[in-house]
Amino acid sequence: MSSRATEVAAALAADAGAGGQASESFGMWTVQVPVEGWRAALYRARDGHGLRFFDWLSAVDELDEGYRVVTHLLDPDTVTHLLVSTQLPLAEPRLDSVVEVFRGAAWHERETHEMFGIDFDGHPGLTPLLLPDGFEGHPLRKEFILASRVAKVWPGAKEPGEGHGSGPRRKAVRPPGVPDPAIWGPDAINDRG
Amino acid sequence: MTPNAKTADPYAGSRDTTEGRVYTVTGGDWDSTFAGDPVSEERLVVNMGPQHPSTHGVLRLVLDLEGETVTKARVVIGYLHTGIEKNTEYRNWTQGTTFVTRMDYLAPLFNETAYCLAVEKLLGIEVPPRAEVIRVLVMELNRIASHLVGLATTGMEMGALTAMTNGFRERELVLDLLEEITGLRMNHAYVRPGGVAQDLPDSAEGSIREFLKIFPDRLGGFHRLLTGQPIWQKRLQKVGYLDVTGCVSLGVTGPVLRAAGLPWDLRKVEPYCGYETYDFEVPVETSADPFGRYLVRVAEMGESLKIVEQCLDRLEPGPVMVGDKKIAWPAQLSLGPDGLGNSMEHVSKIMGQSMEALIHHFKLVTEGFRVPAGQVYVPIESPRGELGYHVVSDGGTRPWRVHVRDPSFVNLQATAAMSEGGLIADVIASIASIDPVMGGVDR
What is the interface pTM, i.e. ipTM, of the complex? Predict the structure, then answer.
């Protein structure tokens, strides 16, 4: 089973041209393809190698290196499966939609679009899927700050000594995902003075 | 009346008057959905949900109808979006189980196990045999509970209310067992990276054996009540059709795929947790309709009973958590007067005897353990299909990214394929047979 995955991964990487690369980690093969060859690579995987079962598609924020889009494909006949990924630039991340290759990719691309701000060219309807209308920002980006716990604190006492009005108070703990008030928020020290 | 300011509410445009600001609330996204003349047009647009007794949770459907025939079915989701994937990035690896168990809340133990298998793969550790058997045991009990809710809600949505009350009644039997084992009826956080939180209580084996005695008859009750019943058959047969090709191109798995004729079950196809050593069958039907999916679910409960029995027979005494004190969460739990917590024995050990144990405890609880950098994808067979965790670590004490391939999310995409061209009454049967859990769909 894994030997066939090795072959398919090597073939897909070779066909992808200069940017193609196959690597194995934790028993799973990952094929890296260049952005331009994304849709073509998925066509080849489906028609040339029998990976006709589309499993899922998502992305990983890799900070300065940009966004990595990952998809998992599977051949149900031989139980061969591997990850195909591509690296998008941080500025204006765009990628060809693969809905024409796999119908099931439609919701995954819509989710990835709203969560990471990645545009999928050729998607039949790239509207928000999970987030409410008028939501601003892309929550799964690392730069997104979970600010609602700052705007409205959780009710009740969270720290020992809170609410008793006596004794030395401990330093208030910031909610997870909220940066130091010195660098973010109304009291932030910034260049604008 | 277009909202121009960035902060304006999309459904309530505002203008300033001498008496202050006046808001005009409009009908949601309805204007853009239905622009035609409602009197002269044949087409009828019906909104179902998100609060509707037959949409299986907070699911909203916008259906275009011509007469009673559905010409277009649009599914609107997101009403239960909780941002769990994002939240896991801010908690340590062990705390992740507490989050993921809340996604597909009818299959909490599957979420926990899949997540822990992914973390353990990154750590390169193997859990003790007893922990693995306990995991399989609680997962199969959980599968029975989940399928019972699936049957119960299908019954309710088809108007078979006795099926609903029976389904929830039998589910209580399973939930009582899970409560006895884990302490909670749902959202257990019982499976942890490295094993399970605590060993089975002494009384558990007896209670499970008692359950194994009475449940087969209760399962037969569904056949007696529903399987041969003409109304049940007429509502579920030859509607909501989706064949193997359709399933594969949309990524549909679980009972929907098996009812279409493909014996695809990850417990057999790519075994994990030692499933290859258990004796059980994968029930398959070929009708590809909701009735076939119903039969598959009932048959799967019978197979789960077989696995539970085998688990009890092979339970050997031993640890339920890995020996590595740098990973094993210090949870020698006991029930005290103030609830479940670390046992006095453990507290006195770390406070009075072992400096090293105290350091491990402190490091683990405040910071958590580190997981080597890399990415893994681990799929398991949940009651609704392939539940997979794509976990990325940067080598730190918290996940860098956790993506969940939830079967409900993927399967729900098949709604349009199943219901367009059919009657509106059959839309209900189709969705009920997918058995989506919105907590898993929206995450």
Answer: 0.84
